[in-house]
Amino acid sequence: MDLDSMDRRILTVLQKSGRISNAELSEQVNLSPSACHRRVQRLEKEGYIRNYVAMVDPRRIGLPTMVFVEITLSGQADELLEAFEREVARVPEVLECHLMAGSADYILKVVARDTDDFARIHRQKLARLPGVQGMQSSFALRTVFKTTALPV
């Protein structure tokens, strides 16, 4: 299914306010509540809307340190990549993992309490992942902006 302009408006609003009521959503996109509800259900069923989540403030829960870690593996065999991906997904401090083209094989987005906590995560978890040959870590000094909203 192709998205029309109404679907895009619905997605734009829901990405910014996922808990909005159907009545409020229908008003914002200028559509009847029943038609709006049907469209949202279709967007969910067809996989355009994968989930609804709460965005937790990492500072409020004691995880203010954001680190981007470039990982280089010892090889590129499918078995090694699969083993690495399976195990890195089990590290709760890793928020994102991206297979890369370029100098690093993967880039991870990691949260920690502070630099000592990151050193622990690095030593006890990341360095022990299958096939890790090298790591380069970059600490975020300040988040300039952050969004999860895609430009629909």
From TrEMBL:
All residue ranges annotated as the HTH asnC-type domain in the record: 3-64
One Pfam family named in its UniProt record: AsnC_trans_reg
UniProt keyword list: DNA-binding, Transcription, Transcription regulation
SMART domains per UniProt: HTH_ASNC (SM00344)
Coiled-coil ranges from the UniProt annotation: none
CDD domains documented for this protein: HTH_ARSR
Gene3D superfamilies found in the cross-reference section: 3.30.70.920, Winged helix-like DNA-binding domain superfamily/Winged helix DNA-binding domain
Keyword Membrane: no
Protein's name in the database: AsnC family transcriptional regulator
Organism: Sinisalibacter lacisalsi
